[in-house]
Amino acid sequence: MATEFTGTGDPARSMALLWRTPPGGGTRPGPRPSLDVDRIVAAAVQLVDAEGLAAVSMRRVATELGVGAMTLYGHVPGKGELVDLMLDSVLAELYPDEAAVTSGSWRDRLTAVARANWDFFVRHPWALHLATGRPPLGPHLMRKYELELRAVDGFGLPEVQMDLLVTLVNGFVRGTVGGVQEKADAERATGITEDQWWAATEPYVARVFDAERFPTAARVGPVAGEELGAGDPARSFEFGLERLLDGIGALIGDPPTR
């Protein structure tokens, strides 16, 4: 069964591994072993990107690396700690150009934050649910939080509102990008695309739909369906982001110019 949340392992062991703190605070003498935590995490990330979180187990990752499962346990105590390491590892991809989220107008900064997170979760859909659980307080998550706070720093907001804005933007992104994952999950589960499902369902809907009972749906649905098809998460993201930023502008005291 897949681990569905971060923070299910031993917190002390996870923190030591996330920050690469060896037991006793020192380094072991002698040559560096051929297998280490970084190689294990990289193999696990490659596996989960290809096959999803359910495919990841200590035994499967060991097989991918060509070693016995017990060899992995000598580096990572279990899947709970491994999942923490996997999420923090991929978070390193965010904000390669830190200036994009730390300079320019507040609107440019938050737009960069939102789009970077959207792209991140599209690349790693398995990370979407994990990111809503107990966060693995590793170096890459802390860097993410630091840079996102800087995106809203210097605009006269109190510290609590800065934190709340970061949470708001991240929550909006997770909510909209979830539509991408839901469509993919439904396609895998049913074997047909959403467009194919709607095409098969539409004749029956037309037969039973009562336009007098649902007049607003009868008016809006066909127009939206013609333009948006079977749903467009990316369009929802762009539309929602602009409305969200307009609202933040009212909070900051910088109303929209359009």
UniProtKB/TrEMBL annotation:
Residues 57-76 bind DNA. GO terms for molecular function: DNA-binding transcription factor activity; transcription cis-regulatory region binding. GO terms for biological process: negative regulation of DNA-templated transcription. It comes from the Bacteria. InterPro entries: Homeodomain-like_sf, HTH-type_TetR-like_transc_reg, HTH_TetR, Repressor_TetR_C, Tet_transcr_reg_TetR-rel_C_sf. It holds the Pfam family TetR_C_1. Residues 34-94 form the HTH tetR-type domain. Residues 1-32 are annotated as: Disordered. Coiled coil: none annotated. Keywords: DNA-binding, Transcription, Transcription regulation. This is AcrR family transcriptional regulator. It comes from Modestobacter versicolor.
